[in-house]
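QA checklist item 7 of 12: single-chain prediction sanity check.
[x] sequence parsed
[x] length recorded as 451
[x] structure emitted
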Amino acid sequence: MKIQTRIMLLMTAIIASVVGGMIITLVALEHRQVARLERERVSTLMDNITREAKESLSLHDDLMLLSYLRFKIRQSNEIDVCLVTKSGYTTILGEVKGELDYHTITETLNSRSSQPAESVTVQVGFSKKAWEDRLRMRRNETLTAVLSVALIGLGLGFAGSLLMSRKLAKPVSELSEAADKLGNGALETSVAVAGSDEISTLGLAFNRMAGNIRESVRAKEDLLSTLTHELNNPLAGLKAYIALLRDPRRVSTIQDTFQAYETMANAVEQMELILSNALELFRTSAKPDLDPEMVDLADMTREVISLYGPVARSNHIDLKLLVPEKSLTLMADKKLLRRVIINLVSNALKYTPERGSITVMAREKEGAVEFSVTDTGYGISKEDQEQLFTKFYRTRGADGKRTKIPGSGLGLAITRQAVELHRGKISVESEKGKGSTFTVSLPKGVSGELI
């Protein structure tokens, strides 16, 4: 059974119960009211007869009382018989037609003389059938009126319950249809929300859920598209050099062979960096546990610079390293710290044009170890700086277009996560057209707990 039908039946049942209770209550009240009115009517008739009896005694006119009683019998169908007793004689007026309910009055006239007091007794027989018929008629009239109003109320209540059930069931039905569409892949599905009730709250929650699903799916699509694009370039280079090395006639000198292997190694390193960044950011644990150990930042920086030296030379970029001769040791996760340095240096190489320069510096500062990468690249606008560490976000090149600069848009997001896991800080200073400086400050000691 549909929820709309259930709501309509429930509301109709409630309305019917309320109306039925009102009918029973009103009929009972009206019955008591009619009975009270009838008692008052009988009491009024008896009061009038008492008054006539008094007047008849005072005037010594027996015919006056008898005439009044005959008139009442003819006028009212509820009085069947009257018995008038005076001076030992009883006069019967009317005739018995059924079961009667007798009411009796006795009036006495005190005489001032020596004669005995004069009295008269009147017994009035009221027809029970006439009284019950009148009660039944009044009750039927009341019941008819109440039922008419009740039918109108039930009709209006049924119409109201139908409209209300539709109003309540409509958003639930829309949510069900939207959930079905979303489950079938229609990611742009959402529901209209109006009001602040529980169903509206449920609609808002559904829209948030649908938005999160869209964001997740788009992120995965972006990641797949970016990785496909980024891996194609080094793969193409690898294929070209493998083809070259397969044909000895195309390799003229040892230097050419060495250059080919070096370029292939750089391509593999680039592919490894791209894949490891993606896996690092999208693996099951968003905040991995640290594996801290004593690390020499100076040695690690020299290692990374030696790795990217050939890339810088091939692009005619002056890659300089400024680190002290002494060790710069700190407690850190070696793998994550190396990734921070690689990402920042790799980023600087991508955004620095030919004939530019990059300065990598590591030093101890105020009880912490500081690492910075300064380039003479395109620079970063204030707008880009606000979203620089967001997943998939890439800054614009010299021509203002993001698509001109290769990259997955994951490196800086990975870098910030790794720095924050070490309870460190990362900042950027940049001006459009004048290069950028990324600075990482790390405490010398770090716990293995997540932040």
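[x] summary fact logged: The chain has a mean pLDDT of 79.
[ ] second reviewer sign-off
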